[in-house]
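Lab channel / #folding
Pinned by the channel admin:
"Please post every new chain as: sequence first, then the structure tokens as a reply. Keep commentary short and put observations after the output so the thread stays searchable."

First post following the new format, from NK:
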Amino acid sequence: MGYTAIAAHPSRRRCAPPQDEVVFFVVNYVFQFGTVWPEADKLLLGTWFTLRLSTLAMGLGLAVGVLGALGKSSASRWVRALVHGYVEAVRNTPFLVQLLLLYLGLPSLGLRLTPDQAALLAMVVNLGAYATEIVRAGIEAVPPGQIEAGRALGLRPHQIFRFIVLVPALRIVFPALGSQFILVMLASSVVSVISAEELTAVADTIIARNFRSFEFYFIVTGIYLALSLAFQTVFAAIDRFLFRRWSAHT
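Reply from TO:
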């Protein structure tokens, strides 16, 4: 059986560019950042929502982390197992899935949350798992001799934990906690999928009206960057003027 080679017509041949040649495609897109300024008040309100949500999640998540760290050092095997299961379940599943489970799954059990409540609960649960391991590492770094010295001074167990264990532990791990806090603030943009009130959700609502996606998401990106830098500055100030001064007087 023979085969006949058929040559393509010269007019149908495509001239491919050399492999080392960079091809630029010019898009006729007119940037209109002027459409952003009339919506500046809404973006500022969304920024405030993000700040409020993130600050609440940081405080409550840290409290959950401290309780979790105590649970991991508990004498009860069941308590340790329960806390360990919680930490592993949260740290090894996506935050988006956790959010949808709380918002869409809990109503099946008779517990219905508003989008803002579900967003806050998901952020606290997520941060609490990571904070548990961070605070536990700080507690284990406190020298046992300090605890024995507190007992020798006649301090009560809650006084020993508060002044001799918890504060030094937080001072040791505060940089790691600060980084985790910022990650939680950035992850707050995910809660826009359930229409919780925050910056990304506000931007999505505006874009649905004017279709200027690039301009608004560009500005929103800058706002998140500014928030991250602001939180870094605040956490550095807390570390410098609170923990280091406390350390200097002890």
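NK: The two ends are 95 Å apart (CA to CA).
TO: also worth noting, The mean pLDDT is 86.
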